[in-house]
Amino acid sequence: RQVPLEDHVIYSGNLFQYIEDNKKWRNRFCVVPHNYGLVLYENKLAYERELPPRVLINSAGYKVLTSLEQYVELVNSSLPGVTPKSGNSPILKCPTDFPLILWHPYARHYYFCLMTGKEQEKWGAVFQDCVRHCNNGISEDSRVEAPAFTDAVRMYRQCKEQYGTWDMLCGNQTQVLSNLVMEELLPELRNAIGPRLKGKAQERQRTWIQISDAIYRMVYEQTKAQYDAMVAKCDQERPQMESSIRTDMDQIITSKEHLASKIRAFVLPKAEICVRNHVQPYISSILEALMTPTSQGFAEVREVFFKEVTDMNMNIVNEGGLEKLAEYMEKLSHLAFHPVKMQSCYEKMEQLKLEGLQQRFDVSSTSVFKQRAQIHMRQQMDDAVYTFETLLHQEVGKLQGKDELCKSIQRILERVLKKYDYDSSTVRKKFFREALLQITIPFLLKKLAPTCKAELAKFQELIFEDFASFILVENTYEEVVLQSVMKDIMQAVKEAAVQRKHNLYRDSMVMHNSDPNLHLLGEGIPIDWGEEHGGQPEAEPAADKRRRAKQVVSVIQDDEGALPYEVGAEVLMSPSSPEPPELAMPPGSPDGVAEIREALAKESIVEPAEERLTNASPTSGAEGPSGDKALHTVPASPAPRAEVPSGDKMPYATPASPAPGAEVPPLPAETACHQPSDKETGEEVAPPVACSPPQLAGTTESMEGVQTEF
Length: 710
What we know:
Layout: E1 9-19, E2 24-33, E3 38-41, H1 44-48, E4 55-57, E5 63-65, H2 68-78, E6 98-103, E7 110-114, H3 117-135, H4 145-159, H5 173-193, H6 201-247, H7 249-319, H8 322-332, H9 339-349, H10 356-360, H11 367-396, H12 401-452, H13 473-498, H14 529-533, H15 542-547, H16 569-573, E8 583-584, H17 592-606
Antiparallel strand pairs: 1-2, 1-7, 2-3, 2-8, 3-4, 5-6, 6-7
């Protein structure tokens, strides 16, 4: 699928947000659209009326915290020398025991709280998914510009003697460059401004967070302007450069090979000694540390997919065949983008620890590898679901009765699981190779720098001046270093596959063209299960459609009643109505939290049969197999991407072959909402009754009453 979540909402619901300006907790209606921005509205009615949102958050670079202790520890470390004395009031008071905090090393922080642990877990999984998606903000579709950008950032940091992985290489290009500036600028500002801050420790910490956020916004705006100008300049010069490359391609290649041979003769002997003494003995240990949690995560993906399809099949047996198929398939089609159901897969990767290896190879954090593997898991799950969906759709028209349908589902499940095993093996092996290179290459460059770096300048004279833009000594040097260790890495991964460790397969086991139906995938119109098999009514008006926007995550409870401290419809409809009720916490008042808890307790006594805080928008009354009120989505309309067999992928196994490591038990027979920009980060604060069209996130235009956050 190219755009699997187009016109869908991942999740929506109510949660409390702490407003720093007036030190009060407000009930907000939060919507997570397909681009994973967090959009906060005054309430649900404001969302349905298409009023401008209060806040737009791009969560790239943020950490999701679920306790005040975690947050206080990070805040204390951000301003050294300023630590509140024990017994003093904390920097933040939460009215419930279930906080959810978005923390950023440079930008402003966001504070939320929920009423129950179940809601905290669900929203925590949604927030984590938003962070994971936004961190991966540089499009991989660009095979030239994206690697050139990330290589330039890495080489810039290496010039500053900063080797190894970098946690803040996240978000789009402007965000990455802003993080790069702040990494150097913030320590200087902290030393200059920190000693001059006045007041109690908590007040100084709050002031420092606001200063850091204001500087980050300024840096972002200036960086964006300069980066956009640079991209425009590159686009303008590109035709002339391409013309030169095509004209002189033979000479460029010859010159590059000559330069590489000279650098290789100088560098390779030293690099091989370094690899033999400092890298080779540890490759197997690094690989084993990577393989265990990664393979457990992919095995969990397989298990979740198997369980969902098997449950669907059992429910079809019990509840009436084809009539229920559309309902279940609409729910299954977005399984990969269900943060709560995928959480068990992602959690396996959180166990990754390189221990002593992390310090030896200067790996600052393993989060880069964790998030990369989790993105692969989501992609493999969606590939498996979409393959299953397409093959089942081909069979549905030929089936008579639910017994045949159930048998067909079981056969297709076996085929897809078999293919998943081979595909996940290929993806994991590629991930292991990339991770090993990402760990060892910076280490080697750092080791070789004292003896090799200074000598590289003399190789510049080997390049003709006309080719200086196309052949770079530094790049050629890194290619030679990569060649010195690549053979050992490839051999280590190959041996793991030969030994069938963690269900890896040898490349020679990947068979080609074993299933002719594979070529049919993606050649038809995208599947609309609701329209074809669900007997859906005619299209709803736009307002009703927005009110019942399709979303991926099921609601906690379908409750049309007023939420605690939510603005009623009559309040918003009256232009002269006062401000909506707030959860007030007077500054410096130690009784604020107690009063809020008492008020919430009274609210829960009034409605004992219901949950105290409904955490998702109401949906149609369709009830899923699990018993909760489920919102089922209809696949989006872009053309699907065909799954074509290649050297990296194993086409389907024959239907009779069960997938290794699992048995299949026999069976009896959003509509368009206000969405933040995908490419820019931002927050907007708008008047609650503004009638102007919504302003997109990250806008550089200023207007009264709107504040852009980065």
